[in-house]
Design goal:
about 200 residues, mainly alpha
Length: about 200
């Protein structure tokens, strides 16, 4: 049942899915380029900012709920922003920009982790804080983004008259499902952050 739904969903939305994936990958490339061509001062500032977060967590009492609460706030804000953009005329283009920025932030964050932890521990922290977390987060983000892009298309294109309760229920389902998966990624991030902090304390 789930497998059938998954195949049908990809078949129906393959163009939008591919577009969002390409935007994220474009962002990754832009992030790498921005870091490579950034001045030494900017690089040092970025590294020290991330290092400072680890230092604060190392010296003070580590509260795991902070990671969860901050993650929840960020996800709620993102969903609200995407929802608002989906009902605006030029919202689609801003959603595209957000996806590019998401990819750029991901690549820059990965580079900073390797700068702080070195090659060996950098791979470990990459797996913990980037790979494991985004295995859940990125598919949910793509699903959510495609849903809001569909809303935008229905409102401002030829299918305006096709908007009905079924379409609204579909969007609400996408929001709830995406939020649940994103919340799961936050839990994984909290666990990974605890492990990463233990590694950082040993450096």
């Amino acid at each position: 049942m789930l497998k059938k739904w998954f195949k049908e969903y990809i078949e129906i939305n393959k163009r939008d899915i591919l577009l969002v994936v390409c935007l994220l990958m474009m962002g990754v490339i832009i992030g790498i380029g921005a870091y490579v061509f950034a001045s030494a001062q900017v690089k040092d500032l970025a590294i020290s900012s991330v290092r400072e977060v680890f230092d604060i967590s190392k010296t003070e009492t580590y509260v795991s709920t902070n990671v969860i609460l901050n993650g929840l706030k960020a996800d709620v804000i993102l969903i609200v922003v995407l929802a608002m953009l989906s009902v605006t005329l030029f919202g689609r283009w801003i959603i595209y920009l957000i996806m590019i920025l998401k990819g750029a932030a991901l690549s820059v964050y990965t580079i900073l982790l390797f700068n702080i932890f070195g090659p060996l521990w950098g791979i470990v922290t990459f797996i913990l804080l980037v790979l494991l977390v985004n295995i859940l987060y990125i598919p949910a983000l793509i699903y959510l983004t495609v849903s809001f892009l569909d809303v935008n298309f229905n409102i401002f294109k030829a299918r305006f008259n096709n908007i009905n309760l079924a379409g609204m229920y579909k969007v609400l389902f996408a929001i709830m499902l995406s939020f649940i998966v994103m919340f799961s990624s936050i839990i994984v991030e909290q666990i990974a952050s605890s492990v990463t902090l233990s590694i950082y304390k040993k450096l």
